[in-house]
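During the no-cost extension, the postdoctoral fellow (Dr. R.K.) reprocessed legacy sequence entries with the updated structure-token encoder. One reprocessed record is reproduced below for audit purposes.
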Amino acid sequence: MAEDYDYDLFTIGAGSGGVRASRVAAAHGAKVAIAEEFRVGGTCVIRGCVPKKMLVYGAHFAEDLKDAQNFGWSTQNATFDWITLRDNVLKDVDRLEGAYTDTLENHDVTIFHERAEITGAHEITLAGGKVVTAKYILVATGARPQIPDVEGAEHAITSNDAFHLDKIPEKIIIAGGGYIANEFAGIFNEFGSKVCLVNRGDQLLRSYDEALRERLLLISMKKGIDFKFDTVFEYIRKTDDGRFKVKLSTCDEEVVDQVMFATGRKPNTEGLGLEKVGVELGEKGEIKVDRFSKTTVDHIYAVGDVTDRVQLTPVAIREGQAFADSVFGGHDPVAVDHSCIPSAVFSHPPIAAVGMTEGEAKNKLGSVKVYQSDFRPMKNVLAGRDERSLFKMICDGDSGKIVGIHMIAPDAAEMMQAAAIAVKAGLTKADFDATTAIHPTMAEELVLMR
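Re-encoded structure tokens follow.
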């Protein structure tokens, strides 16, 4: 396409968004190159949602094996080996990295396994010194864990390191109140760690509906997780035996085996040469883009977590697809709709949601109707597990249009994917009421709420 440049598109970052954009652009006929300084696949595949979900599956067996006894199964001699799970997860990460690499190579995308920096208009310099040019540049470098300014912070791990531990810590303090903190609190707790979750604020998962947050807190406490709110770290100091002395603002000093920070993520924009070529950054270092993912420089675009719009893998993929279709697809520009995005927290049990919370709906719409189902799943009844699920449906009070669905229940995320389609399509409570239930299932509560 671009005879005056080495490439039509040069992508910096081979994560989910960058890979999708590069593959689709190449399929449209563009000559594409991509640079990745670490491993092809990015955060999600290598050190994020994919390996984490495998740990979640592994952790669930702890409860499943206990519950199985009331279903007639003998599981008294069951044992858990962390190294086996860890190594199997890392092996599958290797497989996925190979699959992502194959996808790029099968579309004739040139892969540079090194860092890249924008050094001029349409110019990229690779770490090895090679200089190339491109008509368009896409930045898809993602984000990384934010480390708080605390004495001894270098002794703590982040979610990046959790997949490589040599053993499960007997006692761990996790800092944070978001989805990563709650997910790893559940994982380590099920693996037998004594877990304390420390949050500088007064609530968990602030973007989720209050009723779900309260239910997760109650269940997590019953499972043995300790919570400390309005609390900050004063210091972390390593002991002679390799453990850590931790002083929290609301507690006496204690000794733990591990400290983990899950306190947000910071866009990876340092050292890319963005400011030198006129790309505007936000207060958090995020790349500012328009609705078509274009930066303040016409030929430079950005997608995914580096823009800090919505830090979710499927969003990065949709942004990458829209960019490639818009620039190389030969039709009108495509913008991603960032409203009504479903999400999940793979806690124990998981939370899933789409649309507005009850509080948001009341503030925006005024008149709302709230329907809910608070029940004990059939499996929990027979297992003797006193753990209740909660579904909430938020509707416009005048039209009956569903503006939000929220649930905490086993397999909540699996149910939410289909429910999110209905909310996105603008269906009403009456549409759900007119749908016959599948019995017996948890999902039938979606069409039975009163």
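The first helix runs from residue 16 to 27. The chain is about 30% helix and 25% strand. The remaining legacy entries will be reprocessed before the final report is submitted.
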